[in-house]
Amino acid sequence: MSEFVKREERVVRSTKPHANLLNGVIILALLMFFPYFSFAENLVFVVIDGARYTETLGDPTRQYIPEMGTIADHGAYLDAFYNDNYTFTSRAIPALWCGSWTDVTDTTVQSVNTQYANDPTIFEYYRKQTGAPADSCVYVLKYISSLWLPSYHPEYGPDYWPMIHSEGSSDTDVLNETFAIMQENHPQLLWVYLADVDHYGHLGVWENYVGAISRADSLVGALWEAIQADPIYRDNTTMVVTNDHGRHTDYFSGHGCGCDGCRHIMYLVAGPRVNEGFVSDTEYVLPDAMVTAASVLGIETEYSTGSAVTELFRVTGINESAVNLLQTDFTLHPNYPNPFNPATTIHFSIASSGVIDLSVYDIAGRRVLTVLNQWCEAGDHRLIFNGSDLPSGVYLCQLRMEGVSRTTRMLLLK
Ligand SMILES: [Zn+2]
Ligand SMILES: [Zn+2]
């Protein structure tokens, strides 16, 4: 029987020194955000602007989306997901962020006219409720001079905005930036906006429009592969792929009305909690996508109007309570103290006995130490992690059991 029985404590010492030292400025910045936050699930949310359902999952041949078709076979999707209001980007994107058909307000930033959302966004809810720093909440898109902005809501606002990463000019550029950000920061909430399909749709050449869909499809395939290849993301990351609006049923170069082509869009989800291969014909509408995303992250969205899509996920009552979601099988509690120097207690609880893999990674996803890899009895377990041989910095503690994992962030501050 395991020596790690209930409530036993043991010192685990890392013997592998690590090269990268974080400088003091970064550490001070992290400290400000870092009382005790613990991560459960990661969410990668991809928006393909202006792809019509009939060229994506609504096409039974899936000729333009072979990768997403395969992901759908192992994931789940909605067959009746609709933009139920404004079928154009400047209103539908804020609605996806806010989980409501928020009003927007005109503003000027550095002499460029733009708009901000009046309701709080998922980024703001997430950062306020988790205490996560901006680099754990990243919005990636191509370079745009007049970015739409999250809210200035008095209870949320700029203190809780995401890190906005706006660089490059094509969907391929955006994905390359996304990969670099994933490797560097492992954000828990990653929002990726792909603009090319709408752009080529407006230009009116069919081959270029469906070509852009195929390119977005292969990028989404590569993104899902990268998630599976990353030890921090694998097993605890949900990916959503959706659109803001479609295109006219009878003329693909435009959109903006209430026709079925403009309204009917894709909603695809993949991840460890998803009902494999499930296709729902229940009708959902655009604000529901954000509320579902928030459920995956375990956060509340008090000003949203949408409701969570539940049937695509194996966990029932996904919107009921973050606590239910977190404690379904096992819980990795926040380590204490945090920040720590040089030792901290790792505490986890498992509802049933089983094989546990508990490992510590650096922020780049390199495994620093395997703390435990063995059978453990049901109950509470506490271990002391000693980082005296490690440099200061953020470390990720990941507990994996039966293909599901939980991750917490630990800050070693010397
Ligand atoms: Zn457009
Ligand atoms: Zn239309």
Main pleated-sheet profile: 9 strands, mixed
DSSP helical segment count: 10
Give average pLDDT, whole number: 86
Helical proportion, percent range: 25-40%
Query: How far do the termini sit from each other?
Result: 37 Å
At the fourth CATH level, what is the homologous superfamily of the largest domain?
Answer: Alkaline Phosphatase, subunit A
Write the layout of secondary structure elements.
Layout: E1 11-13, H1 24-32, E2 38-39, E3 42-48, H2 66-74, E4 76-82, H3 89-98, E5 104-109, E6 112-117, H4 122-130, E7 137-141, E8 163-166, H5 171-185, E9 189-194, H6 196-203, H7 206-229, E10 237-242, H8 260-263, E11 264-270, E12 278-280, E13 284-285, H9 287-297, H10 322-326, E14 330-332, E15 343-350, E16 354-362, E17 367-376, E18 379-386, E19 393-401, E20 404-412
Parallel strand pairs: 1-18, 3-9, 3-10, 4-12, 4-13, 7-8, 7-9
Antiparallel strand pairs: 2-20, 4-11, 5-6, 10-11, 14-15, 15-18, 16-17, 16-19, 19-20
Helix pairs in contact: 2-7, 3-9, 5-7, 6-7
Bound molecules: zinc ion (2 copies).
One zinc ion (ZN) is lined by residues 248, 255, 257, 259, 261-262.
Describe the structure.
The protein is of the alpha/beta class and 414 residues long. It folds into 2 domains: 11-36 and 334-412, Macroglobulin (MG2) domain (Immunoglobulin-like, Sandwich), CATH 2.60.40; 42-324, Alkaline Phosphatase, subunit A (3-Layer(aba) Sandwich). It is 25% helix and 29% strand. It has helices spanning 24-32, 66-74, 89-98, 122-130, 171-185, 196-203, 206-229, 260-263, 287-297, 322-326; strands spanning 11-13, 38-39, 42-48, 76-82, 104-109, 112-117, 137-141, 163-166, 189-194, 237-242, 264-270, 278-280, 284-285, 330-332, 343-350, 354-362, 367-376, 379-386, 393-401, 404-412. Strands 3, 4, 7, 8, 9, 10, 11, 12 and 13 form a 9-stranded mixed β-sheet that branches. α2 (66-74) crosses α7 and α5 (171-185) runs parallel beside α7 (206-229). The longest helix has 24 residues, at 206-229.
